[in-house]
TrEMBL record:
InterPro entries: DUF1731 (IPR013549), Epimerase_deHydtase (IPR001509), NAD(P)-bd_dom_sf (IPR036291), SDR39U1 (IPR010099). Residues 4-211 form the NAD-dependent epimerase/dehydratase domain. Residues 247-293 form the DUF1731 domain. Belongs to the NAD(P)-dependent epimerase/dehydratase family. SDR39U1 subfamily. It comes from the Bacteria. This is TIGR01777 family oxidoreductase. PANTHER family: EPIMERASE FAMILY PROTEIN SDR39U1 (PTHR11092:SF0), SUGAR NUCLEOTIDE EPIMERASE RELATED (PTHR11092).
Amino acid sequence: MRAIISGASGLIGEALVARLCGEGFDVLRLVRRAPSRPDEAFWDPAAGEIDRAALEGADAVVHLAGAGVGDRPWTESYKRLIRDSRVRGTRLLAETLAGLKSPPSVLVSGSAIGFYGDTGAAETTESAPKGAGFLADLTADWEAASAPAAAAGIRVVLPRTGIVLSRRGGILGRTLPLFRLGAGGRLGDGRQWTSWISLRDEVGALRHLIGSDLSGPVNLTAPSPVTNAEYTRELARVLRRPAVLPVPAPLLRLVLRDFADEGPLVSQRVLPVRLLESGFSFADPDLPAALKAALEA
């Protein structure tokens, strides 16, 4: 099979490319610079440019590109960048795929559980409505931007991903040095629910979506979400370090601005109902197994 991947240099994209290449896929990476290898093709979402001919004849497209949501404080300019990098890129890709002579059979177009907003302690499935906030509005528009591909008969899957656990990046990668020093702790009161997934299950789920008959939103989270306090205790236990330095919510809001209440302080107890119903089996269904796998990988 021939697969095209955007965001191939990111944490998830890099691992997915390795998985697909290991299975014998012919993988083409979309890059925003002059291609330097035969397995690369140019695109520039901001300028609306893409190598259309390179997309012809692909079996599957996995779209993971977008500016990091938590990489910088949420200034108005950075929020525009987050939004534009997702909505414009998805629309460009979907419209291009829809107009191909030989389009792919499936587009797996990245999304996020930010769609649900703050759900408190309520168990949340794919049938839940859109929540409130910047991320919820962004994710709804991000998903809607894939509509041209679906209208052209391409099966479009929208994996709503939770927090991906890996020592090489993401939240775990950024906070691991503090926890190793014994300077970690819960965020705010620690009662907010955290919906996570191990990197290998994230990649496995994306591979599953390519070959399944699923379409529409699919939650990519482990079946056992935990509170932030539970997450903190478990990470400290695995590292054999204390974690007794909580970060007060006002300090998080001061440093992270609006992102604090939609990122580290948001409560989301999301369940992967459609993924489980489709027969996917988690390698790391609980947090101890996931943290162990993340720290050993």
